[in-house]
Amino acid sequence: MDLKTLPGLFISHGSPMLALHPEQVGPALARLGLNLPKPQAIVVMSAHWESQALEVSTATRPDTWHDFGGFPRELYEIRYPAPGAPELAERILADLAAAGFTAHANSSRARDHGVWMPLLHMYADADIPVISISLPMHMSSDEIYQIGKTLSVLRQEQILLIGSGSITHNLYALVRDGRTQDVPVWASSFRNYVVSKLQHGDIEAVLDWKNIPYVQQNHPTIEHFAPLFFAMGTGSRFSIVHSSFTMGSLGMDLYRFD
């Protein structure tokens, strides 16, 4: 079979409830899964695997982890039983080491919802091997970008690379009672600034995240923005797959890097 180059993706994975109520982004993810060549494997850096050291999941069949509380019972019944890919994981570890990164194998890590929730919409059959890689919180934005760049060669082997986080993520500012509310200026301005810089190829302006206008209001902590740096490293041509907001200020954008 001829292999086709896949893009890198940044996915705003949103609330765990999107597994039950997909809103706009669920169908957008499903269309994306249909339109792309079927991956041989998927590699995901999730905002919900913060770590001290860089780690790669080498598990053969990781468990589905419901890493949240206070949601309806049916959400905890969802499973995403896709296999792991230990041989590919070992190769990723070797590639990272060759690029100067110290990375460690983790054979027991379960899949958090930053991994399985978007894949539930994209590849519902759960028949594609999935590898999780951690988000080392001591690393700079440029180092996380370089991890994506190091692994970008995998795209040529029909392996899909995903950074899973959120373009905006201030949980304290969300409207949770179902009321319709205009998107706050601080959220739309932040999102538009990032998109404008990516459209113009100004990678350094995004990596210089501390100086992006309204960054503290959108990301009181940086873990949901950092997977974008990984996705940016996977390809230089940026495009928007989907853009929307939910619960007032929670950005649900999907970006593609070719």
Short description:
The protein is α/β, with parallel strands linked by helices. The protein is 31% helix and 20% strand. The chain has a 6-stranded mixed β-sheet with strand order 5-2-6-1-10-7, sandwiched between helices. It has a two-stranded parallel sheet with strand order 3-4. Strands 8-9 form a two-stranded antiparallel ribbon.
The largest sheet has its strands arranged as 5-2-6-1-10-7
Distance between the termini: 21 Å
- Give the helix level as a range of percent: 25-40%
**Mean pLDDT over the residues:** 95
How much is the radius of gyration in Å? 17 Å
Describe what this molecule looks like in 3D.
This protein has 258 residues and is an alpha/beta fold. Helix content is 31%, strand content 20%. It has nine helices and ten strands. The chain has helices spanning 25-35, 73-76, 86-98, 113-122, 141-151, 185-199, 203-207, 215-218, 226-233, and strands at 8-12, 41-51, 54-57, 103-106, 130-136, 159-165, 238-242, 245-246, 250-251, 254-257. The strands form three sheets. Strands 5-2-6-1-10-7 form a six-stranded mixed beta sheet, with helices on both faces. The protein has a two-stranded parallel ribbon with strand order 3-4. A hairpin with a 3-residue loop joins strand 8 (245-246) and strand 9. Helix 1 packs across helix 4 (113-122) and helix 5 packs parallel to helix 9 (226-233). The longest helix is centred in the last third of the chain and has 15 residues, at 185-199. It is globular and about 50 Å long. It starts with 7 loop residues before the first strand and ends with a strand.
